């Protein structure tokens, strides 16, 4: 009997050690390059989901090891906003929960800011976007954030069976009026031919200057 109780206790402990795995949703950010203004990309993985008050653990990762790079000149109110495209009739509350952005090593670099409130639609049904929570990486404090490789969310959805998910959107919003504050980058951008040409001119000039100095010393 004691052996049986010991076995059950060990089994219970081992079950409690099983980690909770997040659902991974891969998002294609599109071609690499510098972006001026807003950028919105679609994602799937939650389509046809019905809202029943369930809690979801989500990892939003960028395909091809992609990332979002912010500059020191990027507006401090830069917002990364995952949203769900929803259709339904009636009133639905916003999701609640927590989350964080993470860098290439998977380490958190910014926490989520949840939005409260609700949405009331037309009685016959209406399509709209429901925010899962907003990330403001440049308002997080500390050192300048590294490149953003994805986001983790632990979200409790509203209990509203009359609403269904039809798609998803990820919004990247610099929220600035000045062009130089309204920029960010998708992935690595190779040096342009113009930059290489200027570098070549600089090298040739240095070589010429060195030759001239050597000639002066020999005279």
Textual characterization of the structure:
The structure is a single chain. The chain is an alpha+beta fold and 219 residues long. It has one domain. Helix content is 19%, strand content 42%. The chain contains 2 helices and 16 strands. It has helices spanning 2-16, 193-218, and strands at residues 23-27, 33-36, 39-43, 50-52, 55-62, 68-70, 79-88, 91-93, 96-102, 108-113, 118-120, 126-131, 134-135, 150-156, 159-173, 183-186. A 6-stranded mixed β-sheet has the order 1-5-14-9-10-13, with no helix packed on it. Strands 3, 4, 7, 12 and 15 form a 5-stranded antiparallel β-sheet that branches. The protein has a 3-stranded antiparallel β-sheet with strand order 2-16-6, with no helix packed on it. A hairpin with a 5-residue loop joins β9 (96-102) and β10. The termini are far apart.
Give a short overview.
About 20% of the residues lie in helices and about 40% in strands. The chain is built from two helices and 16 strands.
Comma- or semicolon-separated keywords:
219 residues, alpha+beta, globular, single chain, five-stranded antiparallel beta sheet
Write the layout of secondary structure elements.
Layout lengths: L1 H15 L6 E5 L5 E4 L2 E5 L6 E3 L2 E8 L5 E3 L8 E10 L2 E3 L2 E7 L5 E6 L4 E3 L5 E6 L2 E2 L14 E7 L2 E15 L9 E4 L6 H26 L1
* General form: globular
**Beta-strand percentage?**
35-45%
Gyration radius, in Å: 25 Å
**Helix and strand succession?**
HEEEEEEEEEEEEEEEEH
Average pLDDT, to the nearest integer?
82
How far the N terminus sits from the C terminus, by CA atoms, comes to 104 Å
Q: Classify the helix fraction into a percent range.
A: 10-25%
The SS-based structural class is alpha+beta
Overall strand count: 16
Please tally the helical runs, counting DSSP H or I stretches of 4 or more residues: 2
Give the number of domains.
1
Which residues sit in consecutive blocks of at least 5 with pLDDT less than 50?
Answer: 1-19, 193-207
Largest β-sheet summary: 6 strands, mixed
Strand neighbour order, sheet with most strands: 1-5-14-9-10-13
């Amino acid at each position: 009997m004691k052996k049986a109780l010991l076995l059950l206790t060990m089994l219970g402990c081992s079950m409690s050690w099983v980690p909770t795995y997040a659902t991974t949703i891969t998002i294609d950010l599109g071609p690499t390059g510098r972006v001026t203004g807003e950028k919105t990309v679609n994602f799937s993985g939650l389509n046809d989901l019905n809202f029943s008050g369930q809690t979801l653990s989500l990892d939003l990762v960028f395909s091809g090891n992609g990332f979002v790079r912010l500059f020191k000149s990027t507006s401090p109110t830069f917002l990364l906003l995952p949203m769900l495209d929803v259709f339904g009739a009636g009133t639905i509350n916003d999701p609640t929960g927590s989350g964080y952005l993470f860098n290439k090593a998977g380490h958190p670099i910014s926490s989520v800011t949840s939005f409260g409130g609700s949405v009331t639609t037309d009685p016959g049904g209406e399509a709209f976007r429901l925010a899962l929570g907003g990330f403001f990486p440049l308002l997080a404090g500390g050192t300048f954030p590294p490149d953003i490789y994805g986001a983790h969310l632990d979200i409790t959805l509203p209990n509203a069976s009359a609403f269904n998910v039809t798609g998803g959107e990820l919004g990247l919003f610099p929220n600035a009026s000045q062009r130089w504050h309204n920029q960010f980058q998708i992935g690595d951008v190779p040096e342009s031919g113009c930059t290489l040409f200027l570098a070549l001119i600089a090298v040739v000039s240095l070589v010429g200057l060195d030759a001239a100095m050597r000639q002066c010393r020999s005279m």
